[in-house]
Amino acid sequence: MQHRRLGQTGPFVSALGLGCMGMSGMYGPADRAESIATIHAALEAGINLLDTGDFYGMGHNEMLIGEALQGRSRDQALISVKFGAMRDPTGAWLGYDARPQAVKSFLAYTLQRLRVDYIDIYRPARLDPNVPIEDTIGAVADMVKAGYVRHIGLSEVGPETIRRAAAVHPVCDLQIEYSLISRGIEESILPVCRELGIGITAYGVLSRGLISGHWSKDKAGPGDFRAHSPRFQKGNVEKNLALVEALKRVADQKGVSVAQIAIAWVAAQGDDIVPLIGARRRDRLSEALGARNVTLTEGDLAAIEQPVPRGSAAGARSAAPQMAMLDSERG
């Protein structure tokens, strides 16, 4: 497993990270034993970056990771945690809370659920419109000084917010959606991050499974948020799966899977980008790990982007209410 530094100030992480959200219900039911086995398999394969959020399954995901890491050296895993999203007992989203006192309270509960003494990378999940980013980052910086947090990250914020946050404390990375069919960061967000020496941890590299090569129409079941996601809706999903078919022809010529070429494309966009793999089963993890062996030439990149050009996806990457909460989507 290759490693790269996360930004100018962050830790050295594996070239692929494991996103654990899907292990806690966002894509429908998940098998607990298989989830833990997948985390173990990732660690044994050399992946050391585990990404979670304290609101994934209302704490379930953190407790799952805490259980998976028991008996292992703390430094075997770098844990990245998002905080601030509020949910009610039904799981409904209530907005965001990034007040300084809330930040420190969220962190206290996270440490308990994960059974650790510190968090490697701590980040607000979204920009709280009612709290200046300087106040939020300042509170996390207090926790860095106290030893409870090692590095500060950001998630789904735009250029102005990135600059304001970085002026308070060094930011190691921005976590944001980035894939062949979600390339919005290229215009202004990625240049600012590179100017400031901030890395990218890219989630949604397979667009929630849409460009994995395994998705078929009407596949989303109970509890799977993709049933309401624009790109998976009738009229859009057919157009998007046609893009996948075009991508498959390129993948077949390389002798790799669609998922592998899609992951390799993200990784090839720069050494400052770390794709997060959302595998919740060992077979999917094994396939994703195969992307490490895919070398893309300039000709390959052109062949990939020709049938799947920027802006070709049908439908927004999230539903309208979620898009409205994304600072990264504001002009």
UniProtKB/TrEMBL annotation:
One of the record's GO molecular function terms: oxidoreductase activity
Keyword Lipid biosynthesis included in the entry's annotation: no
Keywords of this entry: Oxidoreductase
Region (Disordered): 307-331
PROSITE patterns tied to this protein: PROKAR_LIPOPROTEIN
Residue spans of biased composition, Low complexity class: 309-321
Top-level taxonomic group: Bacteria
Transmembrane regions: none
GO CC list: cytoplasm
Protein's UniProt keywords contain Cell inner membrane: no
Domain NADP-dependent oxidoreductase: 16-306
UniProt-recorded name of the protein: Aldo/keto reductase
